[in-house]
Design a protein that fits this description.
heterodimer; A: mainly alpha; 9 helices; globular; B: alpha/beta
Chain lengths: 113, 279
């Protein structure tokens, strides 16, 4: 059995069940038409996935760590990131609670993006 | 008789795709990575493998949690290029080897009792394509090898154990050796190394662990296969569990295989390892 690890979310089946609808929304973003639909009207897009008001709020606020804790898998979440102009490192900086620039300053070779 | 002539452990990082597509491989930040593949490509060109079996994981381009197989083997004539949320890369489709896949499915399920999910349609993405990009140059119409995807669940726990992945590699070797056609096959184990992509621990890397993993993979894979998911995640970050797929590659080459290349580069958030074996 897995034990908790500090500052880490372990994506297990229990969490996957909780985040199922969020992850279905993310998976839909794997097509250009759906990405356009999301960008055009997030509310209408979200309405298709039976999300709770809290889940919708997390997406609207771009609260990436909140979404992870709500069961959104990181590889699925990256699709919301991409559709909203938040690449992995911007999402990561927010999850660490720092600015993008402050996060980049912690990296060895910042040009490798 | 078909035989496995080589194995490669290598990292798949999504940012490498656009670097290849936009011709940025010689930029200072990326050159150390691509330079390490120059001798690997020469080695592969000399070996001339007919087929690459790519052990990888999908990143929500084609597999969703509706149904999430533990081990999924491609059994198709060709594989599409997937859109993982950033658009479809302009790459040629991947030609498979459906006859070999069929043989592997039968041998692995009947003889070796690995209950694989068999897939007639897979759209491959960076987990599969970045290792292909690093090892092979594609032309406008195709790749210099046929390739077979073997997708592993490394994202939704419970995952297969490291030892199960290693045993799958050993079974793969035995299965290849009962295929009558005279084919040369390489196995690629992809993923990681150390990285964590969520939480306050985002960006965590551990070069010491990664180098130890490479040492062990070379010298004592049986012992390494006893590593737990917990140990990998604690020491190398939650997303580093992808490393269990390297053990499938190691199981598929001979226990006495000679290590040929080794490299390590960790510029941003992922330890990018490279190790190759012959024999």
């Amino acid at each position: 059995m897995l034990r908790p690890i500090p500052d880490t979310t372990i994506f297990d089946l229990r969490l996957s069940r909780r985040g199922y609808r969020l992850n279905q929304l993310c998976a839909a973003l794997c097509s250009p038409e759906e990405r356009e639909a999301f960008k055009r009207d997030e509310q209408a897009f979200m309405a298709r996935f039976d999300l709770t008001a809290e889940e919708k709020d997390l997406i609207l606020k771009r609260d990436f760590q909140g979404l992870i804790e709500a069961g959104c898998n990181i590889y699925f979440l990256l699709k919301i990131g991409s559709a909203t102009g938040n690449g992995l490192y911007r999402m990561g900086a927010q999850m660490r609670g720092e600015s993008y620039e402050a996060f980049l300053a912690t990296r060895k070779i910042r040009g490798a993006v | 008789m078909a035989r496995i002539v080589g194995g490669l452990g290598l990292s798949h990082v999504p940012s490498i795709g656009p670097v290849v597509d936009r011709g940025r491989t010689q930029e200072p930040a990326w050159k150390p990575l691509f330079d390490a593949y120059v001798p690997v490509r020469e080695w592969l060109a000399k070996m001339k493998p007919d087929v690459a079996i790519v052990v990888y994981n999908d990143h929500a381009a084609d597999f969703t949690f509706d149904k999430y197989p533990t081990f999924a083997l491609g059994v198709a004539e060709r594989y599409l290029i997937g859109d993982e949320g950033f658009g479809t890369r302009a790459l040629p489709e991947v030609t498979g080897d459906a006859e070999l896949s069929t043989h592997l499915a039968q041998a692995l399920i009947y003889e070796h009792e690995f209950d694989l999910t068999l897939c007639q349609k897979i759209a491959v993405e960076h987990g599969f394509l970045v290792p292909m990009n690093l090892c092979f140059a594609h032309g406008p119409s195709g790749w210099p090898v046929r390739a077979i995807p073997l997708q592993v669940n490394v994202i939704q726990h419970p995952l297969p154990t490291a030892r199960r992945c290693y045993r799958l590699g050993q079974a793969l070797r035995a299965a290849v050796e009962t295929y009558p056609e005279d084919l040369k096959i390489v196995v690629m184990g992809t993923g990681g190394m150390s990285h964590q992509l969520q939480g306050k621990r985002f960006g965590y890397m551990n070069e010491k662990f990664d180098q130890w993993f490479l040492d062990q993979l070379e010298s004592d894979p049986e012992a390494l296969a006893r590593i737990t998911h917990q140990e990998i995640m604690e020491q190398a970050g939650a997303e580093a569990v992808e490393l269990i797929m390297w053990l499938t590659m190691r199981g598929a080459v001979s226990p006495r295989a000679r290590r040929v290349h080794r490299n390590y580069y960790a510029p941003m958030t992922t330890g990018m390892g490279l190790i190759t074996f012959e024999g």
